[in-house]
Amino acid sequence: MKKTNNNQYGKNARKPRVGRSGARMNAANDRSQKNAGKPRPVRENKPVKASRSRQQSAAASSEHTQVIQWYPGHMTKTRRRIEKDLKLVDAVAEIIDARIPVSSRNPDIAGLTAGKPRIVLLNKCDMADPRATAKWVSYLSRENVRAIPVDCKSGRGVDRFVPALKELLSSRIERYQAKGMVNPTMRVMIVGIPNVGKSTFINRIAKKVKAVSADRPGVTRGNQWFTVAKGFEMLDTPGVLWPKFDDQTVGEHLAFTGAIKSEVMDTELLAVRLLELLRELKTPEFIERYKLSEEDLSLPGYEILSKIARNRGMLIAGGEADAERAAYTLLDEFRAAKLGRITLEEP
Ligand code: G4P
């Protein structure tokens, strides 16, 4: 029998690369590899201790990555709620971060939605590389899926949502009409991992909270629906999913973009990892902002961080570079897109 590749991106879809080089980074240690896919609950905000001095561990980061321990609780409960709510809707709008379309995506979503028509909103596209976003749009679009780049903060692209939904659901609407429903109401649910912009999107698109309606079997009391357009409603609470845990690169990319709080990891080590990507990308904004020469870019990551600290006048007693402050600054400025419009993952 012919084996098909039926992954989260669709039947026979090629899996996208995580990281520019396409190489998956090493798991931090054997334990994390052994326990891959088996998230253990840990206290949030638990700092990850570096086993060696900061400088040593950061300098050696090409070989070792820190284990980012960030496991939200209530996973089973949340999943069950989403599964229940999915029965009430005709389509799903999945919001992802256009800078990290792989890492900001829950790998179970295709299975969970069980072939329901889907709109993938590539949000925060104002901060992503427009060329990469265009590639992602064509990569993700397929018969039952529409991909739209949006910037929910300014509202750009959001007006494409309803027309896409209408087009995606046109045959379903026709089916309902053939069954005798004159004006069937189509319902959509928003899903996404934390921080991708679900609330921002809902606030932009929701017209008003509609009283509970039950014009179709299965649409039960207890749920509130927003009107998004005539004949289209959206569940008022988004389905909060969780990112993939067992891939260190995913954890890092979520941390770079701020989806995982910096307090749960070693900031300098994280900044060094980010620098390893930025020095490959060499965006003019990055080079000019930190006044880095070609020679600087060939230095080990931790030394580039020290260079940035010096160039920015971030010094500690004795005139030493304040690498910690530089690390926070680098991450803040990356998250604010001051280092250019950057996409970390390519299709
Ligand atoms: P969530 O419900 O999925 O958890 O995400 P939420 O809407 O709370 O958005 C998370 C952060 O992302 C917010 O920033 C929000 O303003 C920002 N954001 C959402 N969409 C976009 C977008 O398209 N472009 C940009 N640049 N940012 C976006 P915050 O700093 O946490 O809050 P705030 O200070 O902006 O209120």
Essential attributes:
two-stranded antiparallel ribbon; binds guanosine-5',3'-tetraphosphate; alpha/beta; 14% strand; Rossmann fold; 14 strands; 2 domains
> Biggest β-sheet: count, sense, barrel?
8 strands, mixed
Order of helices and strands: EEEHHHEHEHEHHEHEEEEHHHHHEEHE
Note the overall shape: elongated
Total strands: the figure is 14
- Mean pLDDT, all residues: 79
CATH topology of the largest domain: Rossmann fold
Describe the 3D structure:
With 347 residues, the chain is an alpha/beta fold. The chain folds into 2 domains: 51-71 and 245-346, Conserved Hypothetical Protein Ylqf, Chain: A, domain 2; 75-240, P-loop containing nucleotide triphosphate hydrolases (Rossmann fold, 3-Layer(aba) Sandwich). Helices cover 36% and strands 14% of the residues. It is built from 14 helices and 14 strands. The protein has helices at residues 30-34, 54-59, 75-86, 109-113, 130-140, 161-168, 170-178, 198-205, 248-257, 267-281, 284-290, 294-297, 301-311, 323-335; strands spanning 6-7, 10-11, 17-18, 91-97, 118-123, 145-149, 186-192, 209-210, 225-229, 232-235, 239-240, 315-316, 320-321, 345-346. Helix 13 packs across helix 14. The model is unreliable at 1-12 and 19-64 (pLDDT under 50).
Helix and strand arrangement:
Layout lengths: L5 E2 L2 E2 L5 E2 L11 H5 L19 H6 L15 H12 L4 E7 L11 H5 L4 E6 L6 H11 L4 E5 L11 H8 L1 H9 L7 E7 L5 H8 L3 E2 L14 E5 L2 E4 L3 E2 L7 H10 L9 H15 L2 H7 L3 H4 L3 H11 L3 E2 L3 E2 L1 H13 L9 E2 L1
Parallel strand pairs: 4-5, 4-7, 5-6, 7-10, 7-11
Antiparallel strand pairs: 1-2, 3-14, 8-9, 9-10, 12-13
Helix pairs in contact: 10-13, 10-14, 13-14
The site of guanosine-5',3'-tetraphosphate has 15 residues, from helix 8.
